[in-house]
Amino acid sequence: xxxxPSLTEFQDAARSLAEVISHTPTLPSxxxxxxxxxxxxxxxxxxxxxxxxxxxxxxxxxSRLSAEExxxxxxxxxxxxxxxxxxxxxxxLGIPATIFMPLGVPVPKLLATRGYGAEVVLEGETVATSxxxxxxxxxxxxxxxxxxxxxxxxxxxxxxLGLELLEDAPEIDTVVLGIGGGGLIAGVAAAVKAxxxxxxxxxxxxxxxxxxxxxxxxxxxxxxxxxxxxxxTIADGILVARPGAVPFEIIKDxxxxxxxxxxxDLARAMLVLLEQAKVVVEPAGAAGVAxxxxxxxxxxxxxxxxxxxxxxxxxxxxxxVSHGLxxxxxxxxxxxxxxxxxxxxxxxxxxxxxxxxxxxEAMHTRHGHGLQISEVILELSxxxxxxxxxxxxxxxxxxxxxxxxVVQD
Length: 409
Fold this sequence. Notes:
Blueprint: H1 7-17, E1 26-28, H2 30-36, E2 40-44, H3 54-63, H4 67-72, E3 74-77, H5 81-93, E4 97-101, H6 107-115, E5 119-122, H7 127-141, E6 144-145, H8 152-168, E7 174-178, H9 183-198, E8 204-210, H10 216-222, H11 245-254, E9 257-261, H12 263-277, H13 287-293, E10 303-307, H14 314-327, E11 331-339, H15 344-354, E12 358-365, E13 375-383, H16 387-399, E14 405-406
Parallel strand pairs: 2-10, 3-4, 3-6, 4-5, 7-8, 7-10, 8-9
Antiparallel strand pairs: 1-2, 11-13, 11-14, 12-13
Helix pairs in contact: 1-8, 3-5, 3-8, 5-6, 8-9, 9-11, 12-13, 12-14
């Protein structure tokens, strides 16, 4: 059997999933088109059932289990999206499901997984630990392990998204999407390239990883999947230390380029999507848009950015929006040492108002390391119109004799 699934396999999978998944909309983005200098379309998998593309692979994998395998139940490990996909698919098929999730998993993902009827076990600090525990559970109980990305049926199920991309927009020249373990991009790359070849054309596929969890570039350099030491990232959905062996065999042959983005890039992308497209996505789901906005993707015709998921904790969304505003130069936190005498706070507020900025929070304290008895510290959170306006506001304060210090987020 070829490592790369055939177009027929993807088409058969799409037909089997027709009653399970939603055909999510594809919408144009004027803001992103202006940024790239070419038409940009958004594939809204954040509106998929369970809030992400993961239901495609999970449902297809479970649909191919034998009656005997179904009777043993299934077990999976996930930080949220795969968990929900497996839980919903298992519920629909009447299969008992146990899901291992790491401690600290976003509450909405935890509640949704339980809401689909799965038994959830919270244990371990990382998805890798949860996956090890799930594998041990499968060996101990006989349950079938449903891996989040390292299985041919998972890749084929995720690849049905690729067929939808060309059905919605046959003119696309480039597809940009995030990479975690590799199941989605492997399936999409195989499906779109097979369908494009049938139509007598070529399509570029560009993968995007969070720079703090970018295991694919060193794996490509080594010619095989390798482990990396990950660092914290807001993109928990693509926080994977090693790509799957099954998808990697496809990625190395069919993915044209892999780029990385920072957490600042992801936060800015989420903010642009929220403000310009009126769309809420999770950080991993914004990876493709982050690559476009940060200049990692060059214009070569119509580009499709896949918004792969929208499951985000409201508290994280609040923090990410604030971070995105700061990264865009629209939210400025400054500390200003002041002499402890009447009128100083009023004078600073007057200067900020003259600069056209808006104070949204203020803290005034006489306590702090290094302060003289006659000094106070004023800490202000200021809303501005962008980086140039922030610089103008700081210059206004400095010209008046104050010494504002910018507090990094």
